[in-house]
Amino acid sequence: MLKDLVTKNRSYRRFYQDVTISTNSLLELIELARLTATGANKQSLKYKLINNSLENEEVFSCLDWAGYLADWEGPEEGEKPSAYIIILNDTRIKQNPNYDVGLACQSILLGAVEKGLGGCMFGSVNREQLRESLTIPVEYDITLVIALGKPKEEVVIADVVNGNIKYWRDDEHIHHVPKRKLENIIL
Amino acid sequence: MLKDLVTKNRSYRRFYQDVTISTNSLLELIELARLTATGANKQSLKYKLINNSLENEEVFSCLDWAGYLADWEGPEEGEKPSAYIIILNDTRIKQNPNYDVGLACQSILLGAVEKGLGGCMFGSVNREQLRESLTIPVEYDITLVIALGKPKEEVVIADVVNGNIKYWRDDEHIHHVPKRKLENIIL
Fold first, then answer.
1. Please, what are the averages of pLDDT over each run of 10 residues along chain A (187 residues)?
2. Is the ipTM beyond the 0.90 threshold?
3. Which among B11, B27, B36 has the least Cβ separation from residue A37?
4. CA torsion angle B12 B15 B19 B23 (round to 10)
5. Is A121 within 8 Å of B12 (Cβ atoms)?
6. B35 reaches A (C-beta below 8 A)
């Protein structure tokens, strides 16, 4: 049932790094994105797939991890993502992909959850460094990076208290994500 | 399986208008959006649910249908959507919802397909008229409108030929949507 996938699809930031993800698995996720709607059907998004340890490390070094966890700089060796999908916008087709990126991301991430994987989206990316290290041509805007792996952490949904939406970790490393209640998001 | 939902989740524009959609069904779709990731977990999106014939007509009159079908102005009476979800951004929380709208939309639309419904996203909306007719406060930006109903048309995926991505209808009113091939969207 879709609700199970949506509920399990949390932002995971610690993984079993030794569980690799095949290129074929990544292509199956891109196939989901390919079948997903795009504004005016223009399909300007393109995908760069990364799943070898050398390039994984290059991508990893361009990401800014978990803004609200001030004393955590990202996963340690052994808990890093096993793969990445870099979502590029082909500016020759469309200047601003608008809602297309989010639509594609959700298909990819739900697909990852269905495979027993999990991911995290990164908008906070050192794009200049990433472009240079992976030789991404200038006509492709780097929109988002999705990190993927087999999750090694528990993420639970909590209520928003006093308007505070910052996620936090407890002493047992369980990650809590406050969500606004349904009645508070219906106008 | 998710791929079935993603494949069936096409943009539908003709519906069995007499098949109504309950407020409870719409709330179940918003629950999926509520559980979906948002940038920095800020959750600035809010939702206005429309499923009565008077307001349906008001929303309908604000939408611009199927840009590529020059000789079709939208569904006739009897084939119009039974409900709408208007996705609003609470600008007091976040100025630009970025990828959040697409992420939420995909959850909502996949949920609709699971219920035997289908939808279509509208970015081309007469926002001024919509705001006035539904009395939407100025602090909420109107991002997208999702039209929903029980689909009354067949939508099939085709290959892109000569770079032409415009969808088209054949003599039997089957709607064809050209999609780029997988190998053409991997960098």
1. 97 97 98 97 97 97 88 94 98 96 98 98 97 98 98 94 92 94 96
2. yes
3. B11
4. 40
5. no
6. yes
